[in-house]
Amino acid sequence: MKLENKKNLKYFLRDDIRQETDFRRTDQNIGVPVPPIEKPAPPDAKKIPLPEPASFEIGEMSLKTAISHRESRRKFTHQALSTEELSFLLWSTQGVREWRQKNALRTVPSAGNRHALETYLVVFNVSGLEPGIYRYLPSQHQLALESTPNHLKDRMIGAALNQQFAGSGAVTFIWTTIPYRMEWRYAEASYKVIALDAGHVCQNLYLACEAIGAGTCAIAAYDQESADQLLNIDGDEEFVVYMAPVGKI
pTM value? Predict the structure, then answer.
């Protein structure tokens, strides 16, 4: 079906929105303090340190091989992911590779280095982790346990519009956005670059999965309200934008 009205698509994907934005009036330019680089974990949250990138003994596949093997995979084995493998995937998709003063340089690009995404994990079968919902803390390279809800697999599948493979892997990555983190600098132009950033992150996940004998498949068709409720987020100041199950193949 050919879309007759492409006004909204044009507005967000072409440069029209940037031309209509008065960047002199963004919060950055009127002196509002910069928002934090990641959502803070509650003080009483259980935190789990992850194997440090310098210690990785995995992921040595050549980039050429990873790119040539990359494909969407919806069938996974029952094999668990190790914590080192999970750590590698998290570092590859949102990890900090270098600190320059107070600026965290990540392993993926982001407009203005704003990184308006948060990474949640719905863990089913990862060695050393109880099933539950976790959030990645890039600045510390740790996980924070968010919750251990009942019927986790069923709720994950339901949030993905009953796509069964969303709950058949070892872990499902769910990315949310906190739009203000990007709006602080780019105002209305943020909406385009947040979507672009999510694409960068998920492509890194695809390639990193290939390098450890795992697979993934991006999911953009999901029930927004159910997905937000699963993560216990408000759906306004933070909401789900993308998800991808990961499992051994």
Answer: 0.93
